[in-house]
Amino acid sequence: MTIELGLMLAGMLMIGFLAQWLAWRVKLPAILFLLLAGILLGPVTGLVNPDKLLGSLLFPVVSLAVALILFEGSLSLRFHELPGIGHVVRGLVSYGAVTALLLLALAAHIVAGLSWSIALLFGALACVTGPTVIAPMLRTVRPNARIGNTLRWEGIVIDPLGALFAVLIYEAIVSRQEGHTIGIFLATIGCGIVIGALAAFVMAFLLRRQMIPEYLQNFAVLASVLLAFSLSNVITHESGLLAVTIMGIALGNARGVHIDDILDFKENLTTVLVSVLFILLAARLHWPLPPGMLGAGLALFVIAQLVVRPISVALSSLGSGLNWRERALIGWIAPRGIVAASVSALFALRLNALGVAGGDALVPLVFTLIIGTVVLQSATARPLALWLKVAEPEPRGVLIFGSDHVARTIGTALAEAGFRVVLADDDWNQIRKARMDGLTTFYGNPASTHAERNLDLTGIGRLLAMSTHRERNSLACVHYRQEFGRQKIYRLRNLSPQENTDRAALPGSLLAPPLFDEQMTHSRFAEMLDQGWRVKSTKLSTTFDWPHFIEQYGSHTVLMFGVDERGALQVASTKRVLEPKAGWTVIALVCSTPAAAIA
Questions:
Q1: Distance (Å) of CA 569 to CA 396, 565, 579
Q2: What is d(CA 293, CA 462) in angstroms, rounded to the nearest whole number?
Q3: Is 434 exposed, middle or buried, given 0-12, 13-18 or 19+ CB atoms closer than 10 A?
Q4: Model-level pTM greater than 0.90?
């Protein structure tokens, strides 16, 4: 049995990884592939039976995993950002969310025959979108900045708030089922708030005063979250989820506490937990569904997609600057994700144990809504955005970190080739010169929090780090590796290979492929420009190909970029030697006179 359990868990981890990888490849939310994998392993083939596999451990495992997922989601909510997110987002996460909750509850009560208490719980779970499903969809849809920012911020903010709504309604149902008075219900809520706030205060105190070494901080937070969840449940039954939600919100807004590393760790841990958890939960689905449940789920999906979401967006966007095309796309995109699936499964387990009528309907209804919204919106959102003319073009543009003469010269050449170019730097004098040259600029460090909120990356798909600050270049490469992908990050060396000794070398994890060739550095490029070299852009043909270009401008010519027949930018680096063909436009650094050549 031990071998079987270990093999099953290891197999689910690998299947979860493959589902996440496939989602990354096709740019769809991973939850879709995880749920489909669970359905294939459970109801379809019968290979995995979670109740038999884990036995009495199933409920504790699911409970602790959901607690960590809720904590990670609530940790990202920043109160200071709420005033700046705009009228529409504030409406979507407040009265818009309440409207959606009530309409979905009404639909569930009428269509699925759920009691009002279970219907309200379904409404709270089904009104929540989240960043884990919104982000990959936006990468595929590529709407304009106003739509993208609205949907992204809605997912970030409503994720913890929706979980809080659901937990409060769940606590009310449990208190009523167990015959608790209003006083006991309020005590349960109060205990969750106090335990969560106290745990956040203690952890913030320890982190702020550096009383926990950095390599143990993630461990300490993980242990404190699980302890707060379990302790709160022991003191007052079923208050643990509220405790970890409050703890995440309080710790995320504590002053003087740096939680970036903690948040990264929690995101990585959540990816693992979500992968295994969703496979387990989907494997518990019974197929075929109970009579009428599939029809009710599909009907609720149609109502949520075509009625509830448009009404919620229409109310929330009254008086805003969005046009009807932008409102229409926002009203179409609302995929459900992690919170809805994981919390509904946990609540269903507990409600079934308490004998609450209708609790077993939560999971199939919520999962039907999740699969329906993700599949339909992933398939139709991009064509709809194009038809509404609110989609951005392919991310062909370039973000350049640096604004000195070298960066401005390269930026100008790329802009003249038809690419969107943004120069980012915190050197005001150089930024001012770039603006005088007609280039789009951003004043500030592109790897800063300020840039995350204010740097418009619409249409940008690459980073060229070529400032005079070597360490900042490396920081920008690491920062934008997740945004653009490792293969779209490049740097211009600040030290030559001969100078880059073991004492001066940076770790490989901080580096990106060097631009152009093995000998090119920032100072060498600047020196060549000072000696009269210039950037030349030429379209090759069958009669004037790359060898002819080299013959005309000399063997010292430095090939920098190529624009292929499809208009895609090809970057020359030490990791990739370009072979320009007829039909390409080459952008190269050429010697004006033979005497100016640098050996």
A1: 7, 10, 13
A2: 47
A3: buried
A4: no
Q: How far is CA 593 from CA 409, 440, 549, 554, 560, in A?
A: 19, 32, 15, 9, 19
Burial status of residue 214 (CB atoms within 10 A of its CB: 0-12, 13-18, 19 or more): exposed
**In contact, 241 and 167? CB cutoff 8 Å:** yes
In the numeric block, which tokens belong to residue 576? Answer: 């990739």
C-alpha 44, offset from chain centre: 31
Token code pair at residue 536 = 């030349």
CA angle, 36 then 41 then 44, to 5°: 85
Residues 382 and 435 in one domain: no
Query: Could you give phi then psi for residue 584, rounded to 5 degrees?
Result: -80, 155
What is d(CA 1, CA 152) in angstroms, rounded to the nearest whole number? 45
CA 272 to CA 61: how far, in whole Å?
Answer: 13
Rounded Cα gap, residues 478 and 482, in angstroms: 8
- Please indicate, yes or no, whether residues 298 and 410 belong to a single structural domain of this protein: no
Q: Could you tell me whether strands 569-571 and 558-563 are parallel, antiparallel, or unpaired per DSSP bridges?
A: antiparallel
Instruction: Report the domain count for the chain.
Output: 2
Instruction: Indicate the residue type of 417.
Output: A
Residue 72 amino acid letter: E
Which of 253, 249, 257, 254 has the alpha carbon at shortest distance from 193?
249
The 10s digit of each residue's pLDDT in 35-74 is 888 888 888 888 888 877 777 777 777 778 778 877 876 7
What is the rounded CA–CA span in Å between residue 426 and residue 421? 17
Please answer whether residues 53 and 241 qualify as being in contact, where contact means their C-beta atoms are separated by less than 8 angstroms.
no
| Span 365-413, pLDDT tens digits | 888 888 888 888 888 888 898 898 888 767 788 888 888 888 899 899 8
Q: Residue 184 region, left (φ>0) first, then alpha (ψ -120 to 50), else beta?
A: alpha
Task: Confirm whether 249 is domain-assigned.
Answer: yes
Per-residue model confidence (pLDDT) at position 85: 55
Cis peptide before 288 (omega within 30 of 0): yes
Same domain membership, residue 366 and residue 476? no
Domain that holds residue 150: 2-45+60-388
CA dihedral 199, 202, 206, 212 (to 10 degrees): -40
The beta-strand segments (E) located in 385-443 are 397-401, 421-425, 440-443
> Measured between alpha carbons, how far is 528 from 588 in angstroms, rounded to an integer?
13
Tell me the pairing of strands 421-425 and 569-571. unpaired
Judging by DSSP bridges, how do beta strands 585-590 and 558-563 pair with one another? antiparallel
Which of helix, strand or coil describes residue 440?
strand
